[in-house]
Each structure stands twice: as structure tokens, then as C-alpha cells.
Write a structure and sequence with these properties.
The chain has 130 residues and is an alpha+beta fold. It contains four helices and five strands. It starts with a strand and ends with a helix.
């Protein structure tokens, strides 16, 4: 189904879509499947489920997902950041706090990878001591 973003609250990560069927559908940031800015008036396509919108994609051609997304695809960027977080655990921790509200799935992944890398580093240091 197609619709238009009526509003989106960045602090609460919640918003509403006016469907072309005349109904309003609530959604949360995690239901928006493309990264980037969610703006009022943005045309989207979504799946309506129990008064809510799921699997939301922008459909207009002038949608900007951010400059880094123009260089790398989402999959490539995620792999590059995962490797960087494993090599530099502090980077993953910083990314976790920066992305915590806007990109919760990526934030969780960055945090987990960096904590695992930090744990491996500490275990290696501890192992060599004894």
C-alpha cells in the first residue's frame, strides 16, 4: 500500500502515515527499512498490519539516504563497520551510542562486535600474564 508520512518524532522514534485508502497507520523507526532521514510528506510504500505500518520503504526518487550510503551499499557498509569495530573496539562503542536511537539494529551490532573484540583482547592479555 502507498501513503504519505504525516509526522515523525525523532525523540520517540514514532510516527504516522496517511494511507491512500484514507486510514492512518502508526509506525516506529525500526519498521522503516531504509536508513536516512524520515520527513513529513515523504511518499512511502508499506504493509498494513493491525492498524500499524510495517516494512516501510520510500518511493520517491529524491529520497536521500545520506552521503555515505551513496558510496557503499548497506550490506558493504555494515561489513566494513563490523570489521572496524572488531579491530578498534572503542569505535564500536562510540557508534553504539551515536546510533542508539536512530539505527537501533546497527547500534546493537556495533556494540556486540566491539564488546566481543574487547573481551578477546582482555583474555589474550590475561592469558599472557599467567
Amino acid at each position: 500500500m502507498k501513503g504519505t508520512i504525516l509526522y515523525f518524532n525523532e525523540n520517540e522514534n514514532k510516527g504516522q502515515i496517511a494511507g491512500h485508502d484514507g486510514q492512518r497507520y502508526s509506525f516506529v523507526r525500526m519498521d522503516f527499512l531504509k536508513e536516512g532521514t524520515i520527513r513529513e510528506g515523504m511518499e512511502v510504500e508499506f504493509v498494513a498490519e493491525e492498524g500499524g505500518a510495517k516494512s516501510i520503504y520510500p518511493v520517491n526518487s529524491n529520497y536521500s539516504g545520506g552521503t555515505i550510503n551513496n558510496i557503499f551499499s548497506g550490506e558493504e557498509l555494515s561489513q566494513i563497520l563490523a570489521i572496524a569495530c572488531a579491530i578498534i573496539p572503542l569505535l564500536g562503542i562510540v557508534l553504539y551510542f551515536v546510533w542508539m536511537h536512530s539505527y537501533p539494529k546497527k547500534a546493537k551490532t556495533a556494540g556486540i562486535i566491539s564488546y566481543m573484540a574487547l573481551l578477546v583482547y582482555l583474555l589474550r592479555r590475561f592469558w599472557y600474564i599467567y
